[in-house]
Structure formats: structure tokens, C-alpha cells
């Protein structure tokens, strides 16, 4: 079946550094990918919708300059947390549609846990 | 390995009916369970979060219950409306902090 791969699964970084998380659709092309984050004991929340070849659409309250999303190909979207701070420590997960928006199936990556020291 | 199953895969009901969506998981060692709504082409919308120490959560016409020992959760939707038509997903957070999703139940509420 279709697989969405995220890398890295775990990352620890120093405050002020930038971290890139990759989301790949391994056996299908995904024109639309989604990025979510989940803080401890809170719900998973949508951060942004990533569209191949165009700018991402960010949810209210998500800083586009801090969370850079690039969807340069039909199989890869990246999320870069710039100048990370401890409050950015969270679980980040992506999902991708296989098929059309109305009839496609949504697949999830396994998530990336970011810890900022 | 944790597995999450949702039954039924699809459900069609007339407007006004009360309905129950089911979610089961194989490993009871979970931190929490979440229910989401997915509209076609859109990202997930969080509906309810139940911590492992809780048994239920309510929000408006939605009520979710959790029975960890039996590995089950239900999402109850009261007085369903056509606007409730969507795919409903449940996900459990495991001991390693990862999220395991079910395949979802596609709900259609007919006027």
C-alpha cells in the first residue's frame, strides 16, 4: 500500500538553529500535503496545507516565516523550523492525498519529534 | 504493534438520526485518543481529545467515550445534520509519542 515517509523521526537541536523535516510519498504523487503539530497532552492541529508548485496555505496563528514549507516536487514536502526555540518542541506529522481531492485517500507519515534545548 | 480499526468504513443515515462510530485499538497502553473530522481535500480538524485517564469528552452534539481496558472508543453524534457528512478518523498516541490512525469512517447524512 501507499506509504508516506517522514525523516527524521527524532531530532534534538540547540535553540536558535534551524531544523528541516522531510515528508515523502513513496509510491504515489501527492499534489497536496498537510503539516500538523501536536504539543503534549493537546490535540493534533493543522499547521498548513502544502501545494506542489505554489505557496503553502497557513492556518491562523502559524507563523509562515518561522515554519517554512517547500513542496517542490510531487513526492516531497519539507517543513523547516527556523531559529527554533524550546516552545517549538513538539510532534510534527505530515499527511498526503493519493488521488483527487474529493475521492483520494489520506495517508500519514510516522511523525517527527522535535526537542529544542 | 498498535493497530487501529474503525467500523463501519462507511455509513449513510437520514438527517436527524443519532449515530455511533466505533474505533478499536490493539494495545491498551495509550496516552490519549483523538477523534478528527476530514472533509474532502482538506486537512484534519480535531474534534475531541480523550486523555488515557478520562472516560469521555463532550463537545456540542459530539460525545466520545474511551474504554482502555477493552481497547475501544466510540464517537456519538446526536441529531445528525447534512453538514456532518465527512470522514471521521480516530488516532491513538502510543508510549513512544507516535500517532496511529484508523482508516476512518465515511459518513453521509442525507437531507
Beta-strand percentage of chain A? over 45%
Residue-averaged pLDDT of chain A: 90
Oligomer: heterodimer
Number of strands of chain A: 11
β-strand percent of chain B reads over 45%
Q: Report the radius of gyration of chain B as a whole number of Å.
A: 13 Å
**What are the segments of chain B in which pLDDT stays under 50 over at least 5 consecutive residues?**
none
Q: How would you sum up the global shape of chain B?
A: globular
Structural class determined from secondary elements of chain A? mainly beta
Which chains have the largest interface?
A-B, 25 and 20 residues
Largest sheet composition of chain B = 6 strands, mixed
Q: How many H/I helical runs of chain A?
A: 0
User: Could you give the distance between the termini of chain A?
Assistant: 37 Å
- Determine the structural class of chain B based on helices, strands and strand pairing: mainly beta
Distance between the termini of chain B: 41 Å
- Relative helix content of chain B: under 10%
Helix content of chain A: under 10%
> In sequence order, what are the helices and strands of chain B, one letter per element?
EEEEEEEEEEE
Label the overall shape of chain A: globular
Beta-strand segment tally of chain B: 11
Amino acid at each position: 500500500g501507499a506509504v508516506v515517509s517522514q525523516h527524521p523521526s527524532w531530532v534534538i537541536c540547540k535553540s536558535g538553529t534551524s531544523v528541516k523535516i522531510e515528508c515523502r510519498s513513496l509510491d504515489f504523487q501527492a499534489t497536496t500535503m498537510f503539516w500538523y503539530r501536536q504539543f503534549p497532552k493537546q490535540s493534533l492541529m493543522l499547521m498548513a496545507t502544502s501545494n506542489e508548485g505554489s505557496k503553502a496555505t497557513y492556518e491562523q496563528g502559524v507563523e509562515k516565516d518561522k515554519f517554512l514549507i517547500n513542496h517542490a516536487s510531487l513526492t516531497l514536502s519539507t517543513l523547516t523550523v527556523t531559529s527554533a526555540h524550546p516552545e517549538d518542541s513538539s510532534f510534527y506529522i505530515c499527511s498526503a492525498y493519493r488521488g483527487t481531492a474529493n475521492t483520494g485517500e489520506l495517508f500519514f507519515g510516522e511523525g517527527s519529534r522535535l526537542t529544542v534545548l | 504493534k498498535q493497530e487501529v480499526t474503525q467500523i463501519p468504513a462507511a455509513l449513510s443515515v437520514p438527517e436527524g438520526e443519532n449515530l455511533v462510530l466505533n474505533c478499536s485499538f490493539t494495545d491498551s497502553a495509550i496516552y490519549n485518543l483523538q477523534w478528527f473530522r476530514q472533509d474532502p481535500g482538506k486537512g484534519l480538524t480535531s474534534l475531541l481529545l480523550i486523555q488515557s485517564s478520562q472516560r469521555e469528552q463532550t463537545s456540542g452534539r459530539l460525545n466520545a467515550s474511551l474504554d482502555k481496558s477493552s481497547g475501544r472508543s466510540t464517537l456519538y453524534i446526536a441529531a445528525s445534520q447534512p453538514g456532518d457528512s465527512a470522514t471521521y478518523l480516530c488516532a491513538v498516541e502510543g508510549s513512544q509519542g507516535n500517532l496511529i490512525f484508523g482508516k476512518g469512517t465515511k459518513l453521509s447524512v442525507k437531507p
